[in-house]
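Retry 2 of 3 after timeout on previous attempt. Resubmitting structure tokens to design endpoint.
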């Protein structure tokens, strides 16, 4: 299946180090070679990069490794196709507008017999179960809350119900963000870490690369990373419980729903 990477921070931060290790799994140290993508929130806007080539072969991925785009919320994905052919329109993350904000979504898993009726403006462009699930999520959220964005608490409860409904059709690990917070639901496997003062050195598990974060941060910085499989060998990663929804804000989990 695919793999996910998310970052939520209290200050704009680049993801070059983590993405370098993550991208290596897109065809070199793992089998996720059917496309990749990454989305960066910047203010109200989103920079979206996707490619149907593997992350280890993509010149666009090389750009991301060299270009330190800073953002407070990032979602990335490397794909192993289960539904939908290898094509640009089937590469995650997917982006839609709701309540005057962009929403970014990526999914790891495989949904069987999932064919919800879509009757609103949210329609898939590609042929993946993932994009269909995203459109269904937004459709149901709009149906529940109308044209007014709900509170974080109300949204988290609605998302928990909807993610459980979708997960009943198979594996549904997902990340969702509107640029203010990052929502992560674990069906089978997700891990997270919070990096904060005092910062230490981190060593990638998929590349011969390390960084001493104390040299590139301030004592006030805080960064949460969420990923399918831990990216480093010398840090303590925390596993989500199956069926757990976590909400990250300003670089830390603020809400957990099981």
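Retry 2 succeeded. Sequence:
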């Amino acid at each position: 299946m695919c793999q996910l990477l998310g970052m939520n921070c209290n200050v704009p931060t680049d993801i070059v180090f983590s993405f370098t290790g993550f991208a290596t799994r897109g065809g070199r140290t793992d089998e996720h070679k059917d496309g990749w993508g990454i989305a960066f929130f910047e203010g109200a806007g989103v920079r979206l990069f996707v490619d149907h080539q593997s992350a280890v072969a993509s010149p666009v991925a090389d750009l991301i490794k060299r270009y330190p785009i800073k953002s407070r919320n990032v979602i990335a994905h490397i794909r192993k196709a289960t539904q939908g052919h290898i094509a640009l329109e089937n590469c995650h993350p997917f982006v839609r507008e709701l309540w005057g904000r962009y929403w970014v979504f990526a999914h790891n898993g495989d949904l069987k017999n999932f064919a919800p009726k879509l009757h609103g403006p949210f329609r898939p462009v590609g042929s993946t179960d993932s994009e269909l699930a995203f459109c269904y999520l937004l459709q149901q959220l709009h149906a529940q809350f109308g044209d007014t964005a709900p509170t974080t608490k109300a949204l988290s409860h609605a998302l928990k119900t909807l993610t459980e409904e979708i997960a009943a059709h198979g594996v549904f690990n997902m990340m969702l963000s509107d640029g203010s917070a990052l929502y992560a639901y674990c069906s089978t496997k997700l891990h997270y870490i919070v990096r904060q003062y005092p910062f230490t050195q981190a060593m990638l598990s998929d590349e011969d690369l390390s960084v001493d974060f104390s040299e590139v941060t301030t004592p006030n910085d805080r960064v949460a990373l969420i990923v399918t499989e831990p990216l480093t060998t010398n840090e303590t990663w925390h596993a989500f419980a199956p069926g757990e929804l976590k909400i990250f804000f300003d670089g830390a989990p603020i809400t957990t729903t099981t």
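Attempt log closed. The chain has a mean pLDDT of 94.
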